[in-house]
Amino acid sequence: MTGAASPGGDNTKMFRKQLSWVLIFLAASIVLQGVGAVLALHEAERQVVRGRIASDIHQGFVQLSATKQHLRAWVTQHKIGAGGNPQARDGLLQDMNSTLATLTRLTQSASSLGLDGPGSQEHSARLEALRVLGHSVQNLGEMLGQLKTLPPDVPARLGWDTLTEVFDRSEGRDLRELIAQSIDRESLAMQRERKAADTTLTRIRWLWIGMALSLGMLSLGATVYFAKALRRPIDELVKGAHTLRQGLLQHRIQLNGQDEFSDVARSMNEMATALEKHSQQEAEQRHRLESEVRERTSALHEANRSLQQTDTRRRQLLADISHELRTPTTAIRGEAEITLRGGERSAQEYREALQRIVSTTRQLGTVIDDLLAMARSDMETLSIVHQVVDLSEPLAEALSQASALAGENRVRIESPSLAQGTFYVMGDAQRLSQLLLLLLDNAVRYSLPGGVVSVSCSPIHEDPPSFKIQVRDQGIGIPAEELHQVFDRHFRGSAARLHRAAGSGLGLPIAKALALAHGGSLALQSPADENTGAGTRVELHLPMWRSNAICTTEKGAAQAEHGRPSL
After folding, report:
1. What is the pLDDT of residues 113-138, one digit of tens each?
2. pTM above 0.90?
3. Where are the domains of the chain?
4. Which residue from 4, 14, 134, 320 lies 20 to 30 Å from 481 (Cα-Cα)?
5. 28: Cα separation from own chain's centroid
6. pLDDT of 3
7. Which superfamily does CATH assign the domain made up of 384-561 to?
8. Is 469 helix (H, G, I), strand (E, B) or coil?
């Protein structure tokens, strides 16, 4: 990658780290602001509680003074005989006691919250006032329990002085002055707490404004900084991506810093280099492919010419076989006409004529078999119906058809007794029977009189599993130099032509084509017996449809040992 160092590279160096620190700082600021909010809320709540307690204490003393005045009025009415319900008196006394108890509790709360102001004189004065007032209320209760209406002859002044002494004096102190001082003191405390609350709220308000402004300025600064730091590298990356998308793979992004954007630019440049190299390789491969296509086209033309030549040879062979059909047909017709022409003949003459006709018919059957084999040998048009087939059935059918030919040639066939339901393959039953019959027919025809053709079947537990069917004869064998040609069409070895002049050389090629059509293979070995140097062994492998199939070759072998062939 070429190009000068980016001037903005130092500004965006370690961009991820800088962004992380800024985000951490912003998160810490938010957390700090939250903590400040909790502390401010706690302080505001504390000031509210202090102000409420101060107000409640002030209100308590005011209420105590008012209740005392109501009680004085009740006593005055009772003294002069103007009424005065005892229940009202008791209710007023209970209110005063309840107010004193509330003031005592509020005094303790005020002390715990530091509501007493500088020093402890305020708290001591409050406790002293509550103690004196409590003693006064207790004395009032005792006195009012013994209070009676003044007789008419007693001066009202005497009753008033006694009443004043109980209501206004306690322990040598003037209760009116004491209550007034307490009210003034609590009023000052309430004003002091209100002022402190206002001060606290003002301080919290400015603290919040300052924190909000600081966080806003910090966020704005981070936004401006990162906007400037991101603009150039992002523009370069977008421009580079657009250029590469247009197919200009030689373009390179000019970012050479040590930040993350430069890493992305280097990755994109490496990708562009790889794509450019791949494009060049693709062009080279396209040229090679075109060359191969030309070569394959030429090979196809050669194959087509070869197929045309093969078709020509096939037509010629069909013409030859058709010509061969005329000869035995003419011989049969001539023999019959000669026999029927003229007068009566002896039974021996008729027998001899029929024997000549049978012999000619056999020759005709051989020619017809060759013609049918040639018609079926076109594997391109051969129809194979794939289905699950029990191999024992086509094998039994092939053995049954081959037994007649074996009897004529005085050849014995030994085969295993295959248990049904144990040898399954995927294929066409009719074609499999044709394949097996071709192998048996070839073994019988090229065996010597009195010879034995043995058939065996066994499973091969490999990957993939298969069945091996072996057909072994004791016949003339095949020379080693001719083994590689036995599957060529129309090839017949020298020994085969001497042993049996008739034949088209199509049996084994057709058998191999059928084996390949079933996904199997066909192999041939000669001599089958190394000691005698005679015979041929053909091995047919067919894919196993079910891996647990078990061949009953051992049972067939046991039958062979007891001299009891299955056919």
Report:
1. 776 655 567 788 888 888 888 888 88
2. no
3. 16-225, 384-561
4. 320
5. 39
6. 42
7. Histidine kinase-like ATPase, C-terminal domain (3.30.565.10)
8. strand
